[in-house]
Write a structure and sequence with these properties.
By secondary structure, the chain is of the alpha/beta class. It has one domain (38-218, 248-326): HUPs (Rossmann fold), CATH 3.40.50. It has helices at residues 23-40, 58-69, 84-101, 110-114, 118-125, 129-147, 159-171, 175-180, 203-213, 229-243, 247-258, 260-264, 304-312, and strands spanning 12-14, 19-21, 49-53, 73-80, 105-109, 152-154, 184-185, 194-195, 289-290, 297-298. It has a six-stranded mixed sheet with strand order 5-4-3-6-8-7, with helices on both faces. α7 (159-171) crosses α11 (247-258). The termini are far apart. The structure holds Fe4 H S5 (Q46) and zinc ion (ZN) (2 copies). One zinc ion binds at residues 3, 5-6, 8, 21-22, 24-25.
Length: 327
């Protein structure tokens, strides 16, 4: 197996491109793919200040590292969600990455700041844990991006993530979500710009990027991911991809090219509960106003996050084990 670029020994094959790469050219390939994505979708431009949501996992650390290599001023944002030992460990990975490179990492712990955590909020409100988690993360991401006056919030969603979400949205014909499933969401209605620069890289590639770039990431899955529908969609797509390399990319980018505009008129800012973990804001923009508690854009007195806080704060924390099966 030889590198496509230098003909030296290859360390990885990318079947959908029918290409193999050595370490140096694989790292360069990943950075080039991200650079291309940033330009193609007008995500960010040189000189922009970006905030990268980091979990300590492979995707978020890879995108942070790649943006730095591409010359961006990138600050990290780590949200402590109260997910027990898992999040203690993930925080350590995020902190170590930042410390080793002398980078700023903003940390927001929702237990310390809002007196809630994901397992307790899920249990008290009857939400799936990933729904309470997604809502909390989006709120903190939005607030931190606006407060720091960053040009964009960057998340580490990769091709596998986006193809799986698209698959689920098509299976259930969620036309509203289909209309907003873009790799870049512009700023507006009091929300910051949000971008997903890794949509050209699969998760095998982001993991390989970290290994080959010497990035120590958290390998374990979140303890609450078990049962999440997106894992089933990913498994189904992996089967298709193994028989027909390139299917995920054709599915996702074909949708962006040929279909997303057909749904964009149906786009709102509301979402059914069970899909909230990987999509966008929770409030319909029909009747906009500022949340009376936090000032975020909402269509009712309190934004969805402040309602979550109001119903959860002050409750005795619920252990993860008691909420795990609800996903
Ligand atoms: S962290 Fe949160 Fe994910 Fe864990 S609880 Fe679900 S949404 S699975 S990306
Ligand atoms: Zn090479
Ligand atoms: Zn609020």
């Amino acid at each position: 197996m030889k590198c496509r670029v230098c003909r030296g020994p290859a360390v990885i094959d990318i079947r959908r491109h029918n290409a193999n790469f050595c370490q140096e050219h694989f790292l360069r390939y990943c950075r080039t793919q991200v650079e291309k994505t940033l330009k193609e979708f007008s995500m960010v431009k040189p000189g922009d200040r970006v905030l990268v949501a980091v979990s300590g996992g492979k995707d978020s650390l890879a995108v942070w590292d790649i943006l730095l290599h591409l010359g961006y001023e990138a600050t990290g944002l780590y949200v402590g969600l109260g997910l027990g030992e898992y999040y203690d460990v993930s925080g350590r990975h995020a902190r170590r990455f930042a410390e080793e490179r002398g980078l700023e990492l903003i940390e927001v712990d929702i237990r310390g700041t809002y007196d809630i955590d994901v397992p307790t909020a899920a249990s008290v409100t009857g939400r799936a844990p990933c729904s309470a988690c997604g809502l909390s993360k989006r709120h903190v991401f939005d607030q931190a991006t606006l407060a720091g006056d960053f040009d964009a919030l960057v998340t580490g969603h990769n091709l596998d993530d986006e193809a799986a979400v698209l698959f689920g949205n098509v299976l259930h014909w969620q036309s509203d979500y289909l209309g907003r499933q873009q790799p870049v969401l512009p700023a507006g209605h009091g929300f910051p710009k949000k971008v997903k620069p890794l949509v050209r890289l699969g998760e095998r590639e982001t993991a390989a990027y970290c290994v080959l770039a010497g990035i120590d990431y958290l390998v374990e899955e979140c303890p609450m991911a078990k049962g999440n529908k997106h894992l089933h969609y990913k498994a189904a797509l992996n089967l298709i991809e193994s028989e027909s390399p390139g299917s995920k990319q054709a599915f996702y980018f074909g949708f962006l090219r040929n279909a997303v505009d057909l749904f964009s008129e149906q786009r709102t800012y509301s979402e059914p509960e069970e899909q909230r973990e990987r999509t966008e804001p929770d409030d319909d923009v029909g009747m906009l106003r500022a949340c009376e508690e936090c000032g975020a854009t909402t269509n009712s007195e309190l934004c969805a996050f402040c309602r979550l806080v109001r119903s959860t704060a002050g409750t005795k924390p619920v252990p993860i084990a008691m909420t795990r099966k609800r996903n």
